């Protein structure tokens, strides 16, 4: 896994910047019922999306949480007083605190099933009855756009995706959350070029191809033979899913407006 303490300074620029953040926030809020209330953005990173969630819904009190000091520090600069350092597996909030909880580009990092289950359990715990949990799913699949780069990388070693939509839905159901909608968004400017993919390989972004290993360099050499080395291929399209915590009596009901405090 990447060292996010070291990545913090270049994280936004290397992952689509403000354009991706705007698209992500719009898709997430499309699955959050309108109205005032409280939203928790778990593993908020630099806060680039968190800030947009808050700005788009002035009546929504948004809190961000992240474990990495450098990430949380950058988020706090964007949303002063609204960021806490916290482990997503042990959130420092009472049961039923929030009307909405989000995890944006977190679950794909949790290859330990116990960690994945603990995060979903905590998100469910801090939700109020009737509240919604919104998360990105199938992140790795979003980058496969059917390009010549994908054809070269097709033979690389894969881990089963931790954030597969079916896997996430099963964990959500285990903790009493019911499906409540889906969406997707294009990530502008994040299409891969052969040259940028080679750089990502050598930085260790492909977790089963460590930097410097012969297999990594074999894939890099094949990518270097592709035409148009600096031309980005198609942008990825990311997927989001929503799950609702049943209200009184255990019934999901209709999507409620987010309640006040």
What's the helix and strand layout?
Elements: H1 4-7, H2 11-14, H3 17-29, E1 37-42, H4 48-56, E2 60-66, H5 69-78, E3 83-85, E4 98-103, H6 113-125, E5 127-137, H7 139-142, H8 148-153, H9 165-174, E6 178-186, H10 194-203, H11 214-224, E7 237-244
Parallel strand pairs: 1-2, 1-4, 2-3, 4-5
Antiparallel strand pairs: 5-7, 6-7
Helix pairs in contact: 3-4, 6-9, 10-11
Order of helices and strands: HHHEHEHEEHEHHHEHHE
- The shape, in one word, is globular
Task: Estimate the strand proportion.
Answer: 15-25%
Count of β-strands: 7
What is the count of helical runs?
A: 11
Reported for the largest beta sheet, the result is: 7 strands, mixed
* Rg over C-alpha atoms, rounded to the nearest angstrom: 19 Å
CATH class: Alpha Beta
CATH architecture designation: 3-Layer(aba) Sandwich
Question: What's the CATH topology name?
Answer: Rossmann fold
Which structural class fits the helix and strand makeup?
Answer: alpha/beta
Mean pLDDT score = 89
| Low confidence ranges | 252-261
Distance, first to last CA: 38 Å
Helix content: 25-40%
In total, how many domains does the architecture comprise? Answer: 1
CATH superfamily, please?
A: Vaccinia Virus protein VP39
Strand order of the largest sheet: 3-2-1-4-5-7-6
